[in-house]
Amino acid sequence: MNDAEHVFDWLQGWYAAQCNEDWEHEWGVKIDTLDNPGWSVRIDLEETDLEGHDYPRQDLKRSGNDWVMAWTSGMTFHAACGPGNLSEALRLFRSWAVENAPNEQQDGPASIPPAPDTAPPGEPVRSDHQPGAVSTCQ
User: Fold this and answer.
1) Domain span including residue 9
2) CA 101, CA 51: separation in Å to the nearest integer?
3) Are 79 and 45 spatial neighbours (Cβ–Cβ below 8 Å)?
4) Which of 30, 74, 79, 94 could form a disulfide with 89 if both were Cys (CB 3.0 to 4.6 A apart)?
5) What string of pLDDT tens digits covers the 138 residues of the chain?
6) pTM summary value
7) Cα(137)–Cα(124) distance, rounded to whole angstroms?
8) How many domains is the chain built from?
């Protein structure tokens, strides 16, 4: 697994760990595109272990398409970045979350189970949809 996949897996676990039948109805994670081009990220911190922690504004500008900005405002973590920097922006959030929330881990919250119906390439996948069904990942 490359680092970009790893940070997305971590973010999925972090999001799932926040969901408590209330949080996900009011708060969440939003990833969108920018027209310059690039990405924007908004991660709500209210009612999480990160509520009340500040991320000082960070601006990394390497070239016209290679840049990352991250900061907190109110109870939200914000990031904006170039078209190839989304995983870098999410790694900034992950590092900050791990440093500031005692229950977070670099590899993701410990209580998050692996995704169902997944297996490494070439390994059999057991499906709950049909008892005893086995297929092979391509």
Assistant:
1) 3-136
2) 9
3) no
4) 79
5) 677 779 999 999 999 998 988 888 888 999 999 999 999 999 999 999 999 999 999 999 999 999 999 999 999 999 999 999 999 999 999 999 999 986 666 555 444 333 334 344 444 433 333 344 443 333
6) 0.73
7) 7
8) 1
